[in-house]
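Why does residue order matter? Because the sequence determines the fold. Keep that principle in mind as you read this record.
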Amino acid sequence: MLDLYNHPSNKTPHSIDMIATLISHSSCHQHHMPEGHPESSERIDAITNQLMASGIDGLLYQRDAPAATDEQLLRVHTPEHLHAITRAIPSEGIYSFDNDVFLSPQTLRAARHAAGAAVLGVDMIMRGETDAVFCNVRPPGHHAERAKAMGFSIFNNIAVGAAHALEAHGLERVAIVDFDVHHGNGTQDIFFNEPRVLFCSSFQYPFYPHTNIDDVPAHIINTPLPATCRSEGFRTAISENWLPALEKFHPQLIFISAGFDAYIDDDMSSISLVEQDYFWVTQQMRTLMDTSKDLAPEKVCRGIVSTLEGGYDLLGLGRCALAHIKALAKL
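Structure:
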């Protein structure tokens, strides 16, 4: 692991390329699901093992995620939601909180650290310590609405990070892009009336969670994809729908809900993307950030914070996440 504080990029952060950052926490292994459930702690290990096998792990800053505070969570969730989760945590075993939400004794701790990873990523970028962050955490978050846990999600990790950027750091424009195969209904719900957040989501349609994607405000760019979608269709949709909106918006930070369940071997969906598609879409975000440095200061994108969402074919998840991280880090 590299020494963050002694690295020369801290002394001259704008003169050389920064090193990307990997954030995780051991508690992410302690959130337990029923036996055989696809959203398991093995997902974290699949990514970690792929990074180690490639040698990329030694080229990244590695940090432990802090636990998100009540204040940070309550920027995007209701007090009732937080209290309901807290009260429902079992002392042993696994409790079915909802149809697709399960709680175990350490779930609340894991969920706080998963959300806190995005907060730390924002803080590191705003301090000039890094310019690209991947949060290898679970439970995932993009299905969690303001007042509801669903879709394996307890708290909306990416929304917590984006709200932190707006409220704690005073940013005026942030973008969230979500390429999970399922629509980011929770993120849409939380930021539906927040024009400071440009939300771009691509997803198989019709498909879970069956969000109403019509009659949305201009800062929400929904990009439904047919079940037959392959690489060319995905790249065309992103190029035609997301990129013009992002270039016009000039986000000061970009957030990525990085779901890899549209991968060709993932049984969770019918869309058939490959590793190179995740490298490509991430590279588009990285290029947008890098080229913004020639713009007026208020239009410069300071960095990218990405956090893990879906992806359940373990071998494919590791390979796709590796491609994503390589593009983030320009490796």
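Confidence is low (pLDDT under 50) at residues 1-16.
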